[in-house]
Amino acid sequence: MSELIGKEYYDESGYFEAHAGHLMDLKSPFQQYRVRKVLEIYAPMAGERVLDMGCGWGTFCFAVAPRVAEMVGVDFSEKSIELCEKGLEQLDLENVRFVCADAGDTGMDEGSFDTILAADLFEHLYPEDSARVTREAFRLLKPEGRFLVWTPNRGHFLEVLKNRNVILKRDPSHVDYKSMARMKELLVGAGFDVEKAYYAESHLPVLRSVERALLGVVPVLRRRVALLGRKPPTRSAVL
Question: What is the CATH number of domain 7-230?
Fold first, then answer.
């Protein structure tokens, strides 16, 4: 059995430093693609209080903050929070803060957010943690609050190759790729109504065009899983 990837891995392996360059550059094509596609799922509005679960390098906190009332990023890695706060020092954003906490048990007040993002988080979560994080998102949202999910599709041919170390190198931090069916199951199991569930194409120019044309009929070209869950007006979290 391989060693579990946990908080120590992210804090001590150099993971965040190794990827900091292009992942902290909000003007890079990849980051612009990520932000655009996630906000196509749902774009938070003025007055909303938004939480980014697994905030990583702070990408979505910095990108979304100018359009909302408050932006909070949470990550269990101290290294992540350190990098996010350094990035925040370079920006004129007074409505952003970062919290070092487990996304599955944040300790934050129930019903305190309008929208929660989980962009490129679920592939880093083991099955039991995925369920905990989804339930915590439900608890933290106000009635009718929205939960946005963006994660690689386990069936895409690039992910299949990476998992087998064929051509592309496997990312050890991607411990459990989710299918669309599994993500729907997680959201419904936590109490959400699923308002949107669709596949999205890659950011790579040529591949993107092929995927966009064929992902509806060719499963191995479905690059990303995108979902929008909504907390019903009056429903308690599923325990």
Answer: 3.40.50.150
Helix (H) or strand (E) holding 146, with range, is strand 141-152
The helix/strand/coil state of 178 is: strand
d(CA 162, CA 165) in angstroms, rounded, equals 5
How far, in Å, CA of 104 to CA of 234, rounded? Answer: 22
- The pTM score is 0.93
List the chain domain ranges: 7-230
Angle at 19 between CA 39 and CA 162, to 5 degrees: 85
What are 44-49's contacts with CB under 8 Å, separation 24+? Answer: 44/68, 44/114, 44/115, 47/114, 48/114, 48/115, 49/112, 49/113, 49/114, 49/115
Task: Give 75-87 pLDDT, tens digit per residue.
Answer: 999 999 999 999 9
User: In whole angstroms, what is the distance from residue 124 CA to residue 111 CA?
Assistant: 25
Q: Which tens digit of pLDDT belongs to each residue from 131-156?
A: 999 999 999 999 999 999 999 999 99
Q: Transcribe 38-91 into DSSP letters.
A: HHHH----TT-EEEEET-TTSHHHHHHGGGSSEEEEEES-HHHHHHHHHHHHTS
What are phi and psi for residue 236, nearest 5 degrees? -80, 155
Q: How far apart are CA 182 and CA 187, in angstroms?
A: 9
Cα–Cα distance for residue pair 67/5, rounded to 1 Å? 35
